[in-house]
Amino acid sequence: MQQRSETLSVSTRRGLTEITGGVRGVLRGSGIREGLCTIFIRHTSASLLIQENADPAVQRDLEAFLSRLVPDGDPLFTHVAEGDDDMSSHVKAALTRTSEQVPVREGELVLGTWQGVYVWEHRDGRHRREVVVHVMGE
Amino acid sequence: MQQRSETLSVSTRRGLTEITGGVRGVLRGSGIREGLCTIFIRHTSASLLIQENADPAVQRDLEAFLSRLVPDGDPLFTHVAEGDDDMSSHVKAALTRTSEQVPVREGELVLGTWQGVYVWEHRDGRHRREVVVHVMGE
Amino acid sequence: MQQRSETLSVSTRRGLTEITGGVRGVLRGSGIREGLCTIFIRHTSASLLIQENADPAVQRDLEAFLSRLVPDGDPLFTHVAEGDDDMSSHVKAALTRTSEQVPVREGELVLGTWQGVYVWEHRDGRHRREVVVHVMGE
């Protein structure tokens, strides 16, 4: 049984940024053919998601829905030091994912035909996010 | 250290379909006594959930709540090619889970007394969904 | 490849209770330096979350937001045997996490600077919750 982990540095803007290629790159580099791939984001105002990568409208609609559900500047929020998008980002991250796992078969992630792996940036502006990819297997 | 993975083909209707038995079957077949079990769904309009399997009212209430929170045919949605339940399904999957992990002890999943593993179908009609179960351990 | 699992017994009140120290304790006890740590909660009315552990206002705001989104005693709910906070707790658990995974490097969880691991208690009153921590690696 072998393992390998690498940290991807992902440049983001508000919304979804696909990282499937970067995750596959770590898997290829590991030489592991059968096993488990874990993706972990080291942040609390950005999150992970596995979703459809065919129609870009899905990504726009996901962002629009979540931003309506968790509005920036909600008067309920008291943690507002970094602006209107600060606390809403933490809530959005809480409602999506910090870690994802994808089994590996024959050297490939077992993603479905339409599935891609995404970082979901919840803050305004440009950011750089660290994502740890860990692969374990044989 | 050993591992085994199998794909379950799950027949679904809108709402929750329990797959605890199928997951246990893969674990039994693996012969693994101590380790980690990963469940992964290869779809973006159906998702996974670990929830109460005692009172069926819990499953009905979960479906009712999520369908009120994320209404079919929300005028916000632009990805509507496959109908009113298309984009709402993607959002519901984003708010629940694509992968789940359950540690294994003495040949059993460490699920709590009332926990079952479910596929949550978000589309109308009948569907067949692929769920990969991966077990790693000794 | 080695593994170890332990069950933490966590005393909770409604809201977030940090368990990062307990998870680290299991990791230290395992002697594992490179690998994967899985955290699993054996309940359906309490959940897990990895979120900011710096400003306590984040935790209060998370609880306030989720309790407004999923109100106790919602007339939609039919599973009400244990009171107004019964079904709302199941929904809140469904919208957050039952399992979390954190890769391990050089004997440490790869948590970001501001990340802590929490049990999120959704029921009123005091409870005791079982959290299984499983570490696998070398």
Describe this entry's structure for a reader.
Three copies of one chain form a homotrimer. Chain A has one domain (2-137): Sandwich (Jelly Rolls), CATH 2.60.120. The model of chain A has no long low-confidence stretch (mean pLDDT 97). By secondary structure, the first copy, chain A, is of the alpha+beta class. The first copy, chain A, has helices at 20-30, 56-69, 86-95, and strands at 2-12, 15-18, 35-41, 46-52, 99-105, 108-109, 115-121, 127-137. The N and C termini of chain A lie close together (5 Å). The first copy, chain A, contains three helices and eight strands. Helices cover 25% and strands 41% of the residues of chain A. In chain A, the strands form two sheets. Chain A has a five-stranded antiparallel beta sheet with strand order 1-8-3-5-6, with helices on one face. A three-stranded antiparallel beta sheet of chain A has the order 2-7-4, sandwiched between helices. The radius of gyration of chain A is 16 Å and the shape is elongated. The A-B interface holds A 1, 34-36, 49-52, 55, 57-58, 60-62, 64-66, 68-69, 95-97, 100-103, 105, 110-112, 114-115, 136-138 and B 1, 3, 5, 36, 38, 40, 42-44, 69-70, 74, 76-79, 81, 87, 90-91, 93-95, 97-99, 101, 130, 132, 134, 136.
